[in-house]
Amino acid sequence: MTAESCKKKTTPLVTTANVTEITSTSAKSGGNVTDDGNAAVTERGVCWSTTQNPTTSSNKTSDGSGVGTFTSNLTGLTSNTTYYVRAYATNSEGTAYGNELSFTTQCQLPSATTNAASDVTGSSATLNGTVNASGSSTTVTFEYGLTTSYGSSVTATQSPLTGSSNTVVSAAITGLTPGTTYHYRVKAVNCGGTVNGTDQTFTTSCPSATATTNAASGVGNTTATLNGTVNAKGTTATVTFEYGLTTSYGSTVTATPSPVTGSSNTDVSASVTGLTPGTTYHFRVKAVNCGGTVNGSDQTFTTSCPSATATTNPATGVTYTTATLNGTVNANGSSTTVTFEYGLTTAYGSTVTATQSPVTGSSNTAVSASITELIPGATYHYRVKAVNCGGTITGTDRQFTTPEAKSSLHHTGIIQTNVDLNTRKTLGQITINPSVSGKVIVSFDGVCFSSPGDRIVLAASNTTNWVSNDGNVHFEAFDSDLNTNAFSHTRVYDVTPGSHTFYAVGQNYVETDGDGLASIYGSLTVQFIPSTSGSIVGFSGIIRPNVNVTSTTTVGSVTINPSVPGKAIVKFDGVCVSSPGDRIILAASNTSSWYANDGSVSVEVPNSDIDRKSFCHTRVYDVSPGSNTFNAVVQNS
């Protein structure tokens, strides 16, 4: 026998470790066997119960043998429950327990699934879902409303739930609006918190309304009342009228009353304004509820239309070719097109739209129109004309007379003694201010005394910046051993209303042995002919160098086309440069077959020791309507 075997055996000594890692269904504890009581510890662990002083006959763990510390895992616990736990150790003498501790498990969240709604009608539905309480008492409700903000709540029939299995839940709701989409979800609340199912929707059923378009009433120039009958079929129906110039309508007005409720026929109407007089309008009633849109049949009405009034007023701003026609028009509420008729008789023949057209409203409106291209010195008839849906109204006839546009003749004498023409000089000028467009005939003629050997260029021009030695714009008066030359130069220009200046110009073109000084005695003549006068002015510049004139030759021509009989003044002037000894005949003629030695139709320019000579020849002919051609003809006699 040993000393050890003589020790007395007792139950072990054990302490309980703190409880940690607590969840809704598990926790961790353990203990420490500090003395085996002189007998081997064959089992150790913890035991627990919902009542105090748990034993190994309660729930327990087995965590090895022997002395020392050990760890125990407690599982299968119920959420949100208070448990008592203590460590134990067993040897041959029995089981010993450590100190008792208590803890409470956490609470597990429930699960919640929103299911499809059922039994949906126009005003009621059943909301459905599935909830697992996860072992805790769980309150179940349904939230519902027109948006995901919900706003209403109903308790599920099966609430509250317990246990840990999936449970089908539901709730019936009433008082819903037909044809309306509702959002809803199931909601589960327990000690672990709140869980919401996903959002679902359902739409209550809805019957369509009925709509009948009735005849319009109270139809005036610009107003009418649209009528109809609507049955909302137990829903709320918004009622409008569509109207416009076609069955596309385009305008909408809300009916009175609107919205319409209930299940009986309700008369509805709407007043419309701002209509156009004398116009046919289409319209129909329109009812919109949760069941959709229903349109009544198309109907029409035509607004009435009074005629406009029109007064012709005196014309103003009358000039040679322009005037302003005036009047007063009252559209009497209808859009009115306003024109003026005018012409040389009361048949008029021309029309111009008034600046203010179209005229609207119901007040007197001053109207006017500017007209142009009138004939000077003519009497015109005119009247205002107003056209609207009520018909055509014309004002009384009135007259005005344009001032007569007359030709004008301007003349200035030119005396220039010993003027230095070595540079370009202006010898005279005339300024005119025509009020209308037309033609200007500018003539510069006279006699030039110059130094032998100078070649003086003299021209009628519309500019002081002219080109010497250009036959189209000037006349040359050359001087060799004879220092006296008669000259004539004519030009034609188009002019517009306003100021125009024309010039007599000169320059020494070639200086041989002369000094460039000259004395000019003559005149500058400007004749203005209005374009509206009926006169015709034709012009052709002539440059014919080295032309063979041994037989009759036409060197230029002008054709006119008068519409009435009259007189034609034909002028041919310029300078002739020829061979010494020739005798050149130059003439303005109405034919190319002329007699060269007939002084009545020609001017003779004999040439002996002089090879440059100015000339001018003018003839007057009777002309008839149609084409008339006049010629510049030349022959060496």
Give the tags.
mainly beta; 0% helix; 45 strands; five-stranded antiparallel beta sheet; Immunoglobulin-like; 637 residues; 6 domains
Helix percent reads: under 10%
Structural class: mainly beta
Rg calc: 62 Å
Mean pLDDT: 88
**Gap between N and C termini, in Å?**
191 Å
| Shape label | elongated
- DSSP summary: helix tally: 0
Number of strands: 45
Please tell me about this protein's structure.
The chain has six domains: 4-104, Sandwich (Immunoglobulin-like); 111-203, Immunoglobulin-like; 210-302, Sandwich (Immunoglobulin-like), CATH 2.60.40; 309-401, Immunoglobulin-like, CATH 2.60.40.10; 408-527, Jelly Rolls, CATH 2.60.120.760; 553-636, no CATH class. Helix content is 0%, strand content 54%. The chain is mostly beta strands and 637 residues long. The chain is elongated and about 185 Å long.
How are the secondary structure elements laid out?
Elements: E1 13-16, E2 27-35, E3 43-49, E4 59-60, E5 68-74, E6 82-91, E7 94-104, E8 111-118, E9 125-132, E10 139-145, E11 151-155, E12 166-173, E13 181-190, E14 193-196, E15 200-203, E16 210-217, E17 224-231, E18 238-244, E19 251-254, E20 265-272, E21 280-289, E22 292-295, E23 299-302, E24 309-316, E25 323-330, E26 337-343, E27 350-353, E28 364-371, E29 379-388, E30 391-394, E31 398-401, E32 408-420, E33 425-432, E34 438-450, E35 454-461, E36 475-478, E37 484-495, E38 500-511, E39 517-530, E40 553-560, E41 566-577, E42 583-589, E43 603-606, E44 612-623, E45 628-636
Antiparallel strand pairs: 1-2, 2-5, 3-4, 3-6, 6-7, 8-9, 9-12, 10-11, 10-13, 13-14, 13-15, 16-17, 17-20, 18-19, 18-21, 21-22, 21-23, 24-25, 25-28, 26-27, 26-29, 29-30, 29-31, 32-39, 33-38, 34-37, 34-39, 35-36, 35-38, 40-45, 41-44, 42-43, 42-45
